[in-house]
Amino acid sequence: MFKIVASDLDGTLLTPDHQIAPYTRDVLQRLHAKGEHFVFATGRHHVDVAGIRENVGIPAFMITSNGARVHDADDNLVFSANVEPELVSQIIALVKDDTTLTCHMYRDHDWLLSRVDEELEKFHTESGFSFAHFDLDTPPVENVAKVFFIRHDHEYLTRYEKLFKETFGDRISVAFSTPFCLEVMGAGVSKGIALEAVAKMKGYTLDDCVAFGDGMNDVEMLEAAGKGLVMATAQDRVKAALPDHEVIGSNADESVAKYLDQHLLK
Question: What family does the entry list (predicted)?
């Protein structure tokens, strides 16, 4: 049976209003009491996730920024991979004249964005994590875990996905966390690689892991884990990439918690 449970947050473990529901919290606490290891595996910032973890009330590793950061249960940074500073500058230069995009950066302790987007605050009511503004003409380039871009037009963002891949090749990793959020990390960064590192630290292998996700930034993790489960509400590209993976219910129905309750706690 699996010893490590890794789950994405938005669209997966969290409810549609981006909260940990009471039943999910109870299941995760019972899972911990049984001796299972839970891992938050998300595109969010570690400061943000730490607030959610505190609310859940269990010690847990945190894979954040799509694998660019890993913190242990005591908040020690155990893995870090940045976007090269020169690449941060070049990426920003490619997009800075596009006024239809909002540009974001995650650094060690900061969430920076090119223009205020109050709509995003609803994603962070549980943790209280918030953002600060930065100037596209003078962007910070050091200690950048990821750069990401938001526009509510998936097809439009796919043009940038193609441009980034053609321009920078394997010097970066690119993934959609939602259809409207395109994310750029350093070379070789993924939740799958990070989960393998966590498993090794705990004395296990990927075969001992079960993982849940719904976004393109989850695909490597779902492929790598001993069992990867796809949310019913996952992006079509995810289901196409993982045609043989089991699909469970939606986050609105707390389907991750229900699966864990049925298969790991009975």
Answer: Belongs to the HAD-like hydrolase superfamily. Cof family.
- Structure-token pair, residue 156: 């439009």
> For residue 176, what are the domain limits?
85-186
The closest of 55, 5, 12, 4 to 248, measured between CA atoms, is: 12
Please state whether 151 falls in left (phi above 0), alpha (psi between -120 and 50) or beta: beta
Question: Pick from 126, 158, 186: which residue ends a domain?
Answer: 186
CATH of the domain at 57: 3.40.50.1000
Closest CA to 213 of 184, 190, 233: 233
How far lies 69's CA from each of 142, 185, 187, 250, in Å? 15, 11, 13, 27
Q: Are residues 75 and 195 both part of a single domain?
A: yes
List the catalytic residue out of 8, 10, 48, 214: 8
Q: For residues 71 and 154, state if they share a domain.
A: no
67 lies in the same domain as 101: no
Q: Which amino acid is at 246?
A: E
Q: Which amino acid is at 160?
A: Y
* pLDDT band, residue 116 (cuts 50/70/90): confident
Query: Among 168, 186, 204, where does a domain finish?
Result: 186
Q: How confident is residue 1, by pLDDT bands cut at 50, 70 and 90?
A: confident
Residue 97 annotated in active site: no
| Both structure tokens of 149 | 């871009």
What is the distance between the alpha carbons of residues 34 and 41, in angstroms, rounded to a whole number?
A: 21
> What pLDDT, in 10s, does the model give residues 119-157?
665 555 555 567 889 999 999 999 999 999 999 999 999
Tokens encoding 51: 């607030």
